[in-house]
Design goal:
Elements lengths: L1 H31 L13 H66 L6 E4 L3 E8 L6 E8 L5 E5 L10 H8 L3 E4 L3 E4 L2 E4 L4 E2 L2 E2 L11 E6 L4 E4 L4 H5 L3 E7 L2 E4 L2 E2 L4 H5 L6 E6 L5 E6 L12 H10 L4 E5 L7 E3 L2 E2 L13 E5 L2
Length: 355
């Protein structure tokens, strides 16, 4: 029996030996085995936690700053809008206040003319037409405010030196809204030449001639202001930067004072149709045309009467333009005055006004 037991034990050991060996090998390897890094459990580091906290703190701070900045911008915008509105109100009030003296002055000079019978207004010019009837003569006054220097110009008859045309023809040809006859002229060889110094488009038409006797020059400078008077040298006239102008006789008012009317012009003729141009101290232009039915001295106005009238109206400079049958006043395409010749006379130069 013992022999059989020993066989069984030997057989069992032999059968289980491989399994036991394998188990021993596995046990020995487990002691030296290392778990790969990617399979090890993740444990957050202390430095990464600190960085995350710092980032969150920075974001919170940025959000706070953004909110504060937005509120500041909104407050600044409200203040800007409020300031802009206030400044606009101040500018508007200042403009009204600045314009008030001009309005008061305009009402003052207009009150001496009566009620306007006709008006023309545009962004370039403002014209008011008045009928005057002082008793001894009948006249028209046209008050003009030039808003643009180019709203007034002088033209030659038929655009030629020596040419002549009526004021109405010139107005129609140039598309002007109004016009008057300008300087005097002399006839020679069937042509009509402007007297003395004449400027057109900033250039002397036939050179400069120093004023002599009772002659004067009147025109517009490049700023749109009426200029005139007697000039002994071209340099003195050039200093006023004339854009255009013509010559005639005599000066009636200069620098707010009446000038002596030469005896010759007081009597030859005594009365006549007249055209006078002048300006107020605010640079508005005033034109007067007196009607007369002939040139023999029995109808129309005297130079003294027109001088007195202009002076009482507050005109600071006034100049007598060509008169008699040359007197012409055109407005809105019609002849306002009554030409003494029965028809308009062709003249060498015309002053035109544009809407």
């Amino acid at each position: 029996m013992n022999r059989n037991v020993k066989r069984i034990n030997r057989f069992f050991m032999l059968a289980t030996a491989p399994f036991i060996g394998l188990l021993l090998v596995m046990l020995l390897q487990s002691k030296s085995m290392t778990v790969p890094l990617h399979l090890q459990a993740y444990t957050p580091s202390a430095s990464l936690d600190a960085q995350s906290g710092e980032i969150l703190h920075t974001l919170d701070k940025a959000e706070t700053i953004a909110v504060q900045t937005s509120a500041s911008i909104e407050k600044t915008t409200r203040l800007y809008n409020k300031t802009t509105t206030a400044m606009s109100s101040i500018v508007k009030a200042a403009s009204i206040q600045a314009a008030r003296p001009e309005q008061i002055y305009n009402r003052r000079i207009t009150s001496k003319l009566g009620a306007a019978s006709e008006r023309v207004n545009s962004d370039k010019i403002h014209i008011e037409l008045y009928r005057l009837n002082p008793g001894t003569y009948k006249a028209y006054a046209m008050k003009i405010k030039l808003k643009d220097p180019h709203a007034m110009k002088m033209t030659l008859g038929k655009d030629a030196y020596g040419g002549a045309e009526t004021t109405l023809t010139a107005v129609q040809r140039y598309g002007a809204i109004a016009g008057i006859n300008a300087g005097g002229f002399a006839d020679a060889g069937g042509k009509r030449y402007p007297l003395s110094t004449t400027v057109l488009n900033g250039q002397y038409l036939n050179g400069f001639e120093a004023t002599f006797k009772d002659l004067f020059f009147v025109g517009l400078n490049r700023s749109g202001k009426l200029i005139g008077g007697k000039f002994t040298s071209q340099a003195k006239l050039d200093a006023l930067r004339p854009s255009f102008g013509a010559s005639f006789v005599p000066v009636l008012i200069q620098n707010g004072k009446k000038t002596p009317i030469p005896a010759k012009w007081q009597k030859t003729p005594l009365r006549a149709p007249r055209t006078v141009i002048g300006k107020y101290k605010d640079d508005q232009i005033i034109i007067m045309t007196a009607d007369g039915y002939n040139e023999n001295g029995s109808s129309g106005a005297t130079l003294q009467e027109l001088q007195d009238k202009m002076y009482k109206m507050g005109v600071i400079d006034a100049y007598n333009l060509d008169g008699g049958g040359s007197t012409s006043l055109i407005l809105n395409g019609r002849v306002v005055n009554r030409p003494s010749d029965g028809n308009l006379r062709p003249v060498a130069t015309n002053f035109l006004f544009f809407k």
